[in-house]
Amino acid sequence: MKKYTIFFLTIPLFLYSCLHRQEDESAKKSENTVLAPINIQFKNRPDINSKFHFTERLWIGKVNLVYIFNGNDNDVFQLYPEKKPADITVLPKQKFIVLRHYVNHLDYNDYLIQNGDSVIIQYVSKKPVLSLINRAHQKHDLLVDELVRLQFDSGKYSPMASYLGAMAFNGREVLSNRSKLPGAKKMTPKQKEERDLPNIIKIKNQQYGPAVEYLKKENMLLDSLKKLGEISDAPYAYYKERAKYYTYLMDVETERITYQQITEVLSPHKPRQQSFPEPYYYELLESVANTHFVAKSDFFPLDDGTNRDYRQLYKAIDTSSVFSTDGRDYLLTREIKRIRSAFPLPEFLDFFTKYQQRVQDSALVMAMKEEFAIDFDSSRLETASVILSDAKGTKLTLEDLKKQHLGKVLYIDFWASWCAPCREALPKSAELREALKYKDVVFVYLSIDSNVKNWKKASIVEQLDRYEQNYLVINPQNAEFMKSTKLNEIPRYMIFGKTGRLLYSNAPRVESSETGILLTNLAVKKN
């Protein structure tokens, strides 16, 4: 059975709350406590109606259905209706993690899961149902979001989800207006933004009242459950804080709160004070940044959905007094990632120097250095050899690798975390690797990812993290071998013979029925 074991990098994810001092004390104690792994098992296939219909025939699906917030980081899991998800093992960083599971395209349930828990997720009547098999818990610890939605007869989506999903509803209005569709195809990104932004704000203002009422009923329900002893202290604290910060978020986006009031909410914040992650705080941070910095900055044609000069945004956030230190660090990290994706490497390196000097969370800086390790590695400029690195950072060349396996056939799989066809083929590759494990054949996986973190996460998901012959190519853009073999597209497969000679520069794909036969025949040959 497939199993994911998730290791998390350090990114801040805590929000101070003076209302829950007992939680603060437990968080401090947990720092010196050995935390047991959390095991999450899926009982059946995810039968979730995650489609959002723009028109009767036009819809968009959602596969990012599970989010796990673990102390200082978060991870996303894609679930597909045709197959049962792999089990997940989480190594928790605090007493609790937050497991967020979407129940449709916009609504989700948040669950507070304790270290050492064994969780079963079963899909019943197109909804996820969670149960804990290792310990007793209060009656409604895992049912709060479902109970709140039952209070409203609001159609498919809750008022809160309808507010947060304003962009989707705007898309529905645009795509259902046939008279505007022909002209929309000719619009520039700036013209589309000028069309969409006022309507999105209008939709949010329309949904504001019902969403506020929704949060009020959630608070009343939580207080009632607490009084009845039907919810534990930690879930109660989590949902109360989430409701408070979602109210702040809506007030920010609909301009019902002044800039000074925002500062009073955000600037006193201190990190790592709760015993659970607080993703809603970071949603508020991004909302403030988007409303008061992104929306008010100059348009910059990047065609990435945001279309802003992230260098300008970085400087504006850096000099702002509205954020606490950790809030500023979080947003500067967001912008440094965007600068890397949108601008030339020399500019990124220049901003990263400023980033290192400004950001006070040393663990966060180290995480960014690891994520963009290739950018700081001079061997990325090497042309004569293909430079490889394993997950620990140990380097070798493709020639070294061939020498290590002289006398064996190498079947090399070039892939990347962002390449869907590559990843779809990996289970078949694992099957063939197992079938040929007693043959003189070695399967080698070479990722051309430019982001180390993405490679490591994908390797964990695809169960390559414990396979020894899994490497990251440091210099795919500059290595002469990659150019001479015209490795411009992936997935791509190559076969090297027992003497290290390249036999097939464009070998059959792993799904092909001839691949196993070809490798078997090559393995029995002397040369």
TrEMBL record:
<feature type="domain" description="Thioredoxin">
    <location>
        <begin position="377"/>
        <end position="524"/>
    </location>
</feature>
<keyword id="KW-0201">Cytochrome c-type biogenesis</keyword>
<dbReference type="InterPro" id="IPR013766">
    <property type="entry name" value="Thioredoxin_domain"/>
</dbReference>
<protein>
    <submittedName>
        <fullName>TlpA family protein disulfide reductase</fullName>
    </submittedName>
</protein>
<dbReference type="InterPro" id="IPR036249">
    <property type="entry name" value="Thioredoxin-like_sf"/>
</dbReference>
<dbReference type="GO" id="GO:0017004">
    <property type="term" value="P:cytochrome complex assembly"/>
</dbReference>
<dbReference type="InterPro" id="IPR012336">
    <property type="entry name" value="Thioredoxin-like_fold"/>
</dbReference>
<dbReference type="InterPro" id="IPR050553">
    <property type="entry name" value="Thioredoxin_ResA/DsbE_sf"/>
</dbReference>
<dbReference type="Pfam" id="PF13905">
    <property type="entry name" value="Thioredoxin_8"/>
</dbReference>
<keyword id="KW-0676">Redox-active center</keyword>
<dbReference type="GO" id="GO:0030313">
    <property type="term" value="C:cell envelope"/>
</dbReference>
<keyword id="KW-1015">Disulfide bond</keyword>
